[in-house]
Amino acid sequence: MGQLLQGSQTSWANAGRLREENVGMLLEAFSCFDSCADLAWQLLERAEARGQFPDGPSLGCFAASCRRRGKGERSLLKIYARWQRRQGNGALESLCLIAVARRLAIEGQAEEALQLLQSAAQRVPLEAAADGVWLACGGLSEELPRTTWTIRSGHDYAKELRLLQSLFRVASRDSSSVAEFMESYGKEELPRCNKWLKIAGGQKAQVLKVAAEASPGGLALELGLYCGFSALHLSSSKRVVSVEADLAHALIAETLLNFASVAHQVEIVVGHTEDVLPWLLGEMQRRSQLNIGFVFMDQRGSRYHTDLDVLLQSEVLQDGAVVVADN
Predict the structure, then answer these.
(1) Does residue 51 or residue 270 have the better pLDDT?
(2) CA distances from 273 to 113, 293, 300, 303, 312 (A)
C-alpha cells in the first residue's frame, strides 16, 4: 500500500485541485506509512502555498508519524503556527510556538527555548501560556511580555481557547484549582452562549476517582484527552499516558496541564487510537512498562471494543486492571 501511494504522486501533485478536506484525508493516508513521510511533507508544503489547511485530527495523524520516526515534530508545529497566523488565530499560533519551546527545553536546549519565546512575544500574544516553559528555562518573570489573546467566534477551537484564557486570569497554578474552574466554566459560563464542555465532571469525576483508586498500581492509560480534565484528576494518584486524535486539543491540554503543574505526570501521545495504540503498546513492552492498572476510554464510542481487544491481546494490563468507558 505504501508503494502504491508513492507511485500515485502525479495524481495529487497539483494540490490546488483537491478540496481542503481531501488534503486532510490524503495526509492521513500518507501518515500511516513511514515510507511516505516525504510525500506527506510535500503535500503539507503545497497545501500551505495554496492556503489549504488540514484540520487538527488530520494533523494529529501526521504528528503520530513524526513521533514514530523520532523526527519532524517541531517542524510540523512551526507549520501549524504559520497556518494559524494566516488565519488570524494568534492564540493557537502561540500554543504551537510554546510547544516548540517546550520540546527544546526537554531536549536540554534551554537557551534556544528562551530565544524562541522572546522572538515569539514580539509578534504574537502569549498570555500566561508560556510562563511555565519560560521560568523552567531560567527566564525572569518580568522579562516576558504577556499580551492578551484576541479570540473571535470564527476562530478554530475558540471555545477551548477561551477556557484557557479565563483559566489564566482566575485559577491558581495547582490541579484542584484548575479542575474546579473547568467544572464551573462548563456549568456556568458556556451555557450562556449555548455551548458546553465535554468533560467527565460532577458525578462522573467522582466515579473516575473511585475507580482509579480501586485499581492496582501502575500507569493510567487514557484514550481521548480533549482539554485534559480527566488526565488532571488521574495525575493526582497515577502517572498518565493519554492519547488524543486532535493536535490542537493536545496543545490546549498540554498548556492546561503545564499551568496546573502536573505536566510531568502526563505523557501526551497524538494520533488516532487505531494508528497509535499498537505502536504505543509496543513501545511500552520495549521499555518493560507492562503495568497499566487503569484505563479510561473517552474516544469515539465505535472504537471501544476494538481498542479494548488490542489492549487485552497486548498483555500490558495488570491482573485486576480497571477499565472505565464514557461517551
Answers:
(1) 270
(2) 31, 19, 10, 8, 15
Could you tell me the three cell numbers for 250?
493536545
Joined together, the cell numbers standing for residue 295 give 484505563
Distance of CA 166 to the CA centre of its chain: 20
Query: Higher model confidence: residue 211 or residue 192?
Result: 211
Dihedral sign of CA atoms 21, 23, 25, 31 in order: negative
Query: Are 93 and 61 a contacting pair, CB within 8 Å?
Result: no
The angle, 0 to 180 degrees and rounded to 10, between the axes of the packed helices 73-86 and 37-49 is 20
Grade residue 196 by pLDDT with cuts at 50, 70 and 90.
confident
Task: For residues 282 and 285, give the distance between their C-alpha atoms in angstroms, rounded to a whole number.
Answer: 5
Q: Which three cell numbers stand for residue 100?
A: 516548540
Q: What is the DSSP string of 144-192?
A: S--PPP---TTSTTHHHHHHHHHHHHH--SSHHHHHHHHHHIIIIIGGG
* Pairwise CA distance, residues 186 & 172, whole Å: 18
**Highest mean pLDDT pick, 150-154, 213-217, 266-270, 299-303:** 266-270
Q: How far apart are CA 179 and CA 182, in angstroms?
A: 5
Domains, in order of start, for the chain:
2-70 (no CATH), 90-150 (no CATH), 203-325 (3.40.50.150)
Q: Is 8 left (phi over 0), alpha (psi -120 to 50) or beta?
A: alpha
The pairing of beta strand 240-244 with beta strand 266-270: parallel
Which H/E stretch holds residue 5?
Answer: helix 2-7
**Of 323, 321, 245, 311, which Cα lies nearest the Cα of 284?**
311
pLDDT at 267 over 60: yes
Please name which of 139, 67, 53 lies closest in space to residue 103, comparing C-alpha atoms.
67
Which segments of 13-89 does DSSP mark as H helices, in order? Answer: 20-31, 37-49, 56-69, 73-86
CA separation (Å) from 125 to 111, 131, 186, 289?
A: 21, 13, 25, 40
